[in-house]
Structures are given as structure tokens and as C-alpha cells.
Request: fold
Amino acid sequence: MKRSTVSAAPFDPSRRKFLGACCAAVGATGMLSALAQLRVLGALAQPGNGPQIPGTANADGDYKALVCLFLAGGNDANNLIVPTDTAGYAAYAAARTALALPIGVALPLTTLTTDGRSWGVHPSMSAFHQLFGARKAAILANVGTLLYPTTKAQYSARSVPLPPQLFSHDDQQVEWQSSLADKPFSSGWGGRLADLTTAFNENNSISMSISLNGQNSFQVGRTVSQYSVSTAGAIALTGSAAPTGTSAAAIRTKAMNDLLAAPQTNLFETAFGGMTTNAIADSALLATILGASTTGAGSAFPTTYAAFPNSNLGQQLRTIARLISARTQLGLKRQIFFARIGGWDLHDRQVVANATATGAHANLLGDVSNSLKAFYDATVEMGVADSVTSFTASDFGRTYNTNGDGSDHGWGSHALMVGGAVKGGDVYGRMPDLSLRGVQDTGSRGQWIPTTSVDEYSATLARWYGVSATDMPLVLPNAGRFANDKVAFL
Reply:
């Protein structure tokens, strides 16, 4: 995705990181579009302007959060969920060859419904398997980017429009996160969702849209800016201090604040000053709230806080749990979070030879499984499990056959949903026909044509979050092209 840049005098890289993390992500809208958005920033968020949420939904105690976990690089869902019936496993092993899991190691899924086949999840997913058995987790099968429902015959004849640049990492990540594959990128569906529901947060101190992994396309909106924090909490401006006293840091901070507050005639300079000032204030507020809290009895943080894996993903979800625990202090009744874990583009060394249940892919799946379980347990202890839904997304799936000890770019993939509101213990959508050159293969390698669109997946989450059928086109304009914009997993 191409981003516009503005030349500026050199300054401390730590300041560059701070400003880049805290300011709004304008993405591919370009500078002119960004300036136009700055003119209306805040205006559309005022009562009476833009889409409104019914006042009855703002009752005390009402709270909901969505947590998007993006598996960057394209997860090999063909080893996430594998056939366990005799015929199904034999065909799987023959097609996957060096990538096939050993027979009998997959953790069996006892589902509420069945298509006549039996399935299991990767053995490293034991924590997720436990949630699935407790009906707090579910699987959405063969989901991917689509412009219209598409069959193999239509794909082969190109008789329906297809998402542009299929099998491209950058393009498919943006299309997944925007859910507008047929238009130039301007906003993400999470950003549009935040724009529509920001009225829930009447007195919020910081943005309802928070990223734990830098700027992303998913949370780009027009009226709600995404706000980035680190796994350590608020991102502070290096070298700043309270603007009082005689220390060098205090003098420097006061001078900086004076410059930011000085009147400017240039629109961009005014916006830059205002946004930077707000970012500094937000950082200080968040650091105070999170820094004053401890874990254990009587704390706002759950005792399960210490159970998170000491991985980057585990710490991202741990910080999200901290932010949820501070929701009342922050004045937030609606929150949207973004976390990301990379490393899924495994064209080689995906598994360990002769020990295919281990290796890079197994390690990634285990991290996702353990981190999601720790996060769910934290929401239970905080009493918000029914109000927090986590869901995964990824660029695409991987090919069913191999290139040796890895797989190549595919299309349809499987997604995971976790939360107290999830109707767990089942596989939703339709598992693909796992036949090379079969009815769902784009060619001969097992690149599955999705049977559920990203729009249907996203619309289901948006409905649970509070978006009415009338307002759905504002968040997901293409959802009406598909038959099922309310998949039953929530």
C-alpha cells in the first residue's frame, strides 16, 4: 500500500516513532484527503452529526469490545484443522505429503453439527481445544475476500468480478481489513465501525480504537483516530517531563508545549500541533491509569494477568486486558482493539522433517492458542467475558499441496472466534471439498475458493457490536451482495 510522505527537518527518531504511533493513520488517502479529514475531525462526532446509535443502548453497564487478531503472512489453515476420519485423513496425507500431521495426533473436535466428516485441530492448539469443548470458541470455515459469491466455473470463466491481486500479501491484508476490495483504500471496516458507534462513548478520555501493533488499515476511520500503545503501556515522548521546574527536560518540555500551542496560519501545522498535544496528554493519562494499578486481590487487573505467555502476542493481549480493566476510568463503553502476530509466510521450514507436528507453524499456533486462552480467562475474571469477542483474520490460506517443506499462497482460510457471546463448539460456514482440482480448487494446488466472504464474517461481528441492519451499509457496503450477513456463531 502506497503511503504519502511529507518532508520535515530531522528530529529524534524516538519522537518520530512516538508521533507515528499516536497520530491518526491516514493510509492511502493521501495528504489532500488527510487535510480534508482534519477539517471535519471532531465535527462529525458531535451529537446530531453522522449516524446515531439509539439512546436506549447507552444504559449504564453496557460494554462491548472487539479484538482483531491478525495472523500476518497467511496462515496454513489446512494444518490448523485436519480430517480425522479414515478416508479423509488418507486423502489429506496423500495431498500434503511432507506437511501432513502424523495420524492420530490432531485433537478431535466434537461439533454440534456435522457435514458427515470428522475433524481435529493441530495438537499445539490444546488451549483453544479446551475453549472449543467448553463452547466458548468456534471456527468459521473457508472464509476469504470476495466481491460476489463465486463458483469454480465463474472463477475459471472470469464471469464475476474477483478481488484484485489475489494471492498478494499487501493487497489481501488491506482487502481483509477494509472489506472493500473493489475500491481504492480509504478506511478499514473497524474504523468505520468506530465512526458509527463512537456515540456510545460520551466522555471518553482516549480513542476507542487502540492498536497494540502500530498503525494498520483495519482501524483507519474518518472521525475516530486509531491510537497506538506498546506492550509496556502508553508510548511516552522521549526526553519529556512535567513542564515545571528547572531541569533540562522540564525546560525542553515547556518549550515544546509552547511551540505546539502557538497560533499557526497553515492548516497542516495547526492540525499537527493539536494532534501532538492530544497525543502527549493521552499518553500521560494512560500512563497514570495503568501505572497506578497492580495485580492481585483488590486490583482492577485480574489475577490471571500473570498467566499470559511471555511472547509478543501474549503481551499484546495482556495489555489489551489491562486497557479493558481501565475502561470505566477511560470513559469507554465501546472499544476496538488490534493485535498482530507475523511469521506465517512459511514457504519453507514450516515443519520439522519426520516430526511434522512440530516446527515454526506449530509454534505460532501454540502461541495463538495459549494467548487467546489467557485473554479469555482474564475477561472471565473481570466479569466481561460475554462483552468481549476476539476473532482472527489473515491474508489468505495456503496451498493444499506443498513445495517441499512449506506451502504457497492460497485463498480461503479458517478463522477462530473466542468469547462468552460466541456460540462455541461448532464449525460454521462450509469446510471445503479437499480435492486437488476439485470443485473449490482454483487450479491444481488446492487454493480454496471461499464459501464465506469477509463481508459476511465482519457483518456478523458488527451486528453483535450494535450495528443495525439499516446502518450496516455504512460499515460494510458490500455485505448485501451475500446471502448470509449474520452467521450464527454469535
About this structure: The chain has one domain: 13-42+65-481. The longest strand covers residues 64-71.
